[in-house]
From TrEMBL:
Its cofactor is FMN; FAD. Residues 37-81 form the Rhodanese domain. It is found in: Cytoplasm. InterPro entries: FAD-dep_OxRdtase, FAD/NAD-bd_sf, Rhodanese-like_dom, SoxB. GO terms for molecular function: nucleotide binding; sarcosine oxidase activity. It is an enzyme of class 1 (oxidoreductase). Its EC number is 1.5.3.24. It catalyses: sarcosine + (6S)-5,6,7,8-tetrahydrofolate + O2 = (6R)-5,10-methylene-5,6,7,8-tetrahydrofolate + glycine + H2O2; sarcosine + O2 + H2O = formaldehyde + glycine + H2O2. Keywords: Cytoplasm, FAD, Flavoprotein, FMN, Nucleotide-binding, Oxidoreductase. One of its GO terms (biological process) is tetrahydrofolate metabolic process. Its main location: cytoplasm. Belongs to the SoxB family. This is Sarcosine oxidase subunit beta.
Length: 419
């Protein structure tokens, strides 16, 4: 087990040595014949699960098997927003648990993930929308989550460049979660990978799972492009590829895969000091520490496994941006990309055992899964270690769609393309 810690002492030591002593953040592990637990998918959720299995549940004979490279999936493609401003009882405690874990994450994993609690502000543009946000804010406060209702004057003093007096979408105020904010997305993958590796977890990149080993109906391991690997338990954390991987075990999931795009502008001087969401369209924006405007909107609206989007959504996102802050029209776009969303039928996730013995599922994160990364890892580790759901994830059952116990936070019904 490795013991090198990042600290001011190690930084000074390496400065004196000309930075010749840094070790790779994690080992390039080759697959062993067998593990107690194999996690399929080296995204944020898979790596966090491995870290909590090792650190909180003492299960260290663990492998994370990733078909590409760590951070190449959605964990490194999202718009970095974290928050716990949920409404429904099935969701609020889970996302608040995640927020608390974000607050201690850098100490837990000894890694600078640039956790920035700069606040998330949801704007409202009508009396009906204000009522909905008052209700949401009250639900949050009843659960001990921070929420503040801001009037138009306060929002105007905070963000004077927004389009307040637009005839169609006047800004009447906003619901602020001060503890929400942003976290550097790929640092989350690297930090969890390094911390898990230090506890003995094998992180195996360029190793695609192509099937499952079974004995008498029980899943006993995985077939991979680097050979078969045995396991006591197998956990799936494959995000946008969940349905594809689960189908190899004969499971049909209540999930559709859709593309979501993200956009980054050229670097500008700091002028947006929080995350802002436009309530009259689907548009959200923040400013990165490098100065780029990071923004996004809707999913592309058709099923796909391609990690790239199309022009109509680019146009739609830019229209949202122009309606909210017309000055964005003068800014040049630097780059944009797409990721794969595992859209569940009610917009809420699944952390559960599957009908196949030995096979466990973590999926259905839609486009809100980055903020869930720490709690998802903790709850999935708990399930894998104890065979029972964690107290804050009891609602995330796989059979809830058959039972009618859906957690429809947005009230959209079984419409994955609307969640
Ligand atoms: C553009 C965009 C913006 C977003 N913005 C936000 C946001 O602001 N806030 C928020 O909370 N969420 C956001 N999300 C959603 C969030 O990024 C995802 O819900 C979350 O990252 C999914 O979990 P993950 O990190 O484990 O996924 P991933 O990083 O995708 O991990 C899954 C891994 O499984 C691997 N895999 C798949 N199949 C196999 C196989 N057969 N064998 C081995 N490995 C396999 C993949 O290669 C991948 O690395 C956004 C997503 C996108 C694309």
């Amino acid at each position: 087990m490795r013991t090198d810690r990042y600290s001011i002492v190690s930084l000074l030591r390496e400065t004196v040595r000309g930075h010749t002593g840094w070790k790779p953040a994690w080992r390039d592990a080759a697959p062993a014949a067998r593990y107690d637990v194999i996690i399929v998918g080296g995204g944020g959720h898979g790596l966090a699960t491995a870290f909590y299995l090792a650190s909180r549940y003492g299960i260290r004979n663990v492998a994370v098997v990733e078909k590409g490279w760590i951070g190449g999936g959605n964990v490194g493609r999202n718009t970095t927003i974290v928050r716990s401003n949920y409404l429904l009882p099935g969701n609020v405690p889970f996302y608040e648990q995640s927020m608390k874990l974000w607050e201690g994450l850098e100490q837990d994993i000894n890694y600078n993930a640039m956790v920035s609690q700069r606040g998330v502000l949801n704007l409202f543009h009508s009396d009906a929308q204000r009522n909905a946000y008052v209700r949401r804010g009250n639900a949050m406060r009843l659960h001990g989550v921070d929420a503040e209702l801001l009037d138009a004057g306060t929002v105007r003093r905070k963000l004077p460049f927004l389009n307040f007096d637009d005839a169609r979408f006047p800004i009447l105020g906003g619901l602020l979660q001060p503890r929400g904010g942003t976290v550097r997305h790929d640092a989350v993958a690297w930090g969890y990978a390094r911390a898990a590796d230090r506890l003995g977890v094998d992180i195996i990149q360029n190793c695609e799972v192509t099937g499952f080993l079974t004995e008498g109906g029980r899943v006993t391991g995985v077939e991979t492009t680097r050979g078969p690997i045995g396991a006591g338990k197998v956990g799936l954390a494959c995000a946008g590829n969940s349905s594809r991987v689960a189908s190899m075990a004969g499971l049909r999931l209540p999930i559709e895969s859709h593309v979501l795009q993200a956009f980054v502008s050229e670097g500008l001087k700091p002028f947006i000091d929080c995350v802002v969401t436009f309530g009259a369209g689907h548009f959200y924006i923040s400013q990165s520490d490098k100065g780029g405007l990071v923004f996004g909107g809707d999913i592309d609206g058709y099923n796909s496994y391609a990690q790239r989007g199309n022009m109509p959504v680019i146009e739609d996102v830019c229209e949202g941006g122009m309606a909210l802050m017309p000055r964005i029209g003068r800014v040049r776009l630097l780059r944009h990309w797409g990721g794969l969303m595992d859209m569940s039928m009610d917009g809420s996730p699944i952390i559960d055992r599957t009908p196949r013995d030995g096979l466990y599922l973590n999926a259905g994160w839609c486009y809100g899964g980055f903020k869930a990364t720490p709690a998802s890892g903790l709850c999935f580790a708990h399930l894998l270690a104890r065979d029972e759901p964690h107290a804050v994830a009891t609602a995330y059952r796989l059979d809830r769609f058959a039972r009618g116990a859906v957690i429809d936070e947005k009230g959209m019904g079984a419409q994955p393309n609307l969640h």
